[in-house]
Amino acid sequence: MIKSEFPIGRKITGVRGMTKSEIERNGWDDWHPLRPAPTVLQLDDGSILYTMSDEEGNDAGVLVATRANGDDEYLFVLNARQTRAAADAAKHLP
User: How far apart are CA 42 and CA 72, in angstroms?
Assistant: First the structure.
């Protein structure tokens, strides 16, 4: 059930890995540094979007994109180079 109109109308301004402090804020204290950081979508108003395994926030989830051609792509951040490439690509979104 959708409880509000948010984030309708917002624009994605960046894609990055979740920071250590954001991971800790969610209570994922046992997050191993070798695991991929959860993907964060930054919005134009400073808000962020990210996935969780459930509504209780027991763990991070994987963000999946289904492209217009039907291909699925799993979005997660592995390193800084890939983070920069994703942010650059987001600049070209309509």
Answer: 21
Q: Look-up: residue for tokens 């509504």? A: 55
Angle made by CA atoms 28, 31, 32, in degrees to the nearest 5: 175
Q: What is the pLDDT of residue 86?
A: 59
Band the pLDDT of 85: cuts 50, 70, 90: low
Q: How far apart are alpha carbons 67 and 2 in whole angstroms?
A: 23
Q: Is the peptide bond before 38 cis (omega within 30 degrees of 0)?
A: no
Whether the predicted model's global pTM rises above the 0.70 cut? no
Helix, strand, coil percentages in the chain from 3-state DSSP, rounded to 5: 20, 25, 55
d(CA 72, CA 24): 30
